[in-house]
Design goal:
The longest helix is centred in the last third of the chain and has 15 residues, at 59-73. The protein is globular. β2 and β3 form a beta hairpin. The protein contains three helices and three strands. Strands 1-3-2 form a three-stranded antiparallel sheet. The chain is 41% helix and 14% strand. By secondary structure, it is an alpha+beta fold. It has one domain (19-73): Arc Repressor Mutant, subunit A (Orthogonal Bundle), CATH 1.10.10. It starts with 18 loop residues before the first strand and ends in a 5-residue tail after the last helix.
Amino acid sequence: MAVIDSRTPLATEPQADPFLTTNEVAARYRTAPGTVRYWRHAGTGPRSFKVGKRVLYRESELIRWEQERDAEQNGTGQ
């Protein structure tokens, strides 16, 4: 009988999508946390969600938002 080590991820397991805080998003874009909060309030920033009182951002959502903004700025809007 084969023994599977549960500490070793299987190749079929999806990779986790890391969550970032407002401060981490601000650091990523080299801006102030207040700017990220303003983007959220104005609806112009990457999508976020709340867990309790914490606002979190999925890394995949940041990448999507970056690509969307890049397309808008380069005239190839979607």
